[in-house]
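Figure 3 (text version): C-alpha cells given as input.
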C-alpha cells in the first residue's frame, strides 16, 4: 500500500497508508506495530477506503513530547478525520488500537464515527479479569499468552536480526510511555462507554491470555450498543491466526453499520 505523510498539527505528522474507495475505515494497530493489521487493511481495501496510520513513536516515526497518553492519540486521529471531512467512519482497532478506538468514540461529539470494531482490545479495568503484564513476559511467555498455536508463532530472540530487535524495543518503549501507567487502561473509560451508542463489535480470540474472552464480554457489555463474538482457535491477534473468520465478521459489520447519507 502507498504510504504518505499527513500533517495533523504543526509538530505532528502521521505516516499513513491509504487504499481503496468507498466508506472510510480507520485501522489502528496494536503494540506489535503496523504489520499486525497489514493483512486486514489489504482485505478491507477491496470494498472500502482504508486509512492505516503508524502510531507516532512506532517504527521510527516521530512522537512529539506532549503526546504521552492514549487520549492524546484519540484526539489527534479524530482531528485528522474531521479536517479531511470524512463521515460515516468505521474504526477498527486491534489490542492497543482498540483502546484508541474506544477513546475516540467517547470523544466524538461530531458524530464522525458510525461503527466500531475492537479486536482483543485493552483499555478498561475489569476487576475479575486483570490484563496480563506484557512487559514482564519473556519471548516464550509472550507466545504462550498471545497465540492459540504458540509453537507456530514463537520466535527465538536469538534468531531475530539486530535491526528488528531494536525496532521492537523502541516500539515497546513508546508503548510504556503511552500505556504503562496506569497499565494498559484508562480508569474512567469503562463507565463512559455506556454513552457510546454507535454499534460496537468486539471480536475476541477464544485462546487469548493477554485479555481473556471474559474481559471482552465485560468490555462489550459496557457499550451502549456492544456485541461480542469469540473466534475459536485464535489468540490475541485473530486477524492473523484466523483471518477468514475474522474478516467475515468485520465485513458483515461494515455493511450493517454503513450510513451512506452520512457520507454526503
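Below: residues designed for each position.
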Amino acid at each position: 500500500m502507498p504510504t504518505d505523510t499527513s500533517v495533523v498539527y504543526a509538530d505532528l505528522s502521521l505516516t499513513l497508508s491509504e487504499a481503496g474507495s468507498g466508506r472510510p475505515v480507520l485501522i489502528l494497530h496494536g503494540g506489535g506495530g503496523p504489520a499486525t493489521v497489514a493483512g486486514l487493511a489489504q482485505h478491507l481495501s477491496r470494498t472500502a477506503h482504508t486509512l492505516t496510520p503508524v502510531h507516532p513513536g512506532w517504527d521510527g516515526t516521530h512522537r512529539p513530547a506532549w503526546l504521552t497518553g492514549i487520549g492524546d492519540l484519540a484526539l489527534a486521529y479524530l482531528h485528522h478525520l474531521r479536517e479531511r471531512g470524512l463521515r460515516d467512519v468505521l474504526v477498527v482497532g486491534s489490542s492497543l488500537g482498540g483502546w484508541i478506538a474506544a477513546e475516540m468514540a467517547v470523544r466524538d461529539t461530531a458524530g464522525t464515527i458510525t461503527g466500531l470494531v475492537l479486536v482483543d482490545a485493552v483499555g478498561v479495568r475489569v476487576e475479575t479479569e486483570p490484563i496480563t503484564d506484557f512487559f514482564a513476559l519473556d519471548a516464550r511467555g509472550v507466545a504462550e499468552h498471545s497465540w492459540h498455536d504458540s509453537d507456530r508463532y514463537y520466535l527465538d530472540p536469538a534468531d531475530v536480526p539486530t535491526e528488528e530487535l531494536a525496532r521492537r524495543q523502541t516500539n515497546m518503549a513508546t508503548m510504556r510511555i503511552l500505556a504503562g501507567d496506569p497499565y494498559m487502561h484508562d480508569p474512567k473509560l469503562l463507565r463512559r462507554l455506556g454513552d457510546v451508542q454507535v454499534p460496537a463489535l468486539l471480536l475476541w480470540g477464544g485462546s487469548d491470555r493477554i485479555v481473556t474472552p471474559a474481559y471482552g464480554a465485560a468490555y462489550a457489555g459496557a457499550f451502549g450498543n456492544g456485541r461480542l463474538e469469540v473466534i475459536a482457535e485464535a489468540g490475541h491477534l485473530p486477524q492473523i491466526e484466523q483471518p477468514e473468520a475474522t474478516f467475515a465478521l468485520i465485513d458483515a459489520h461494515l455493511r450493517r453499520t454503513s450510513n451512506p447519507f452520512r457520507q454526503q
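The CA atoms of residues 58 and 170 lie 7 Å apart.
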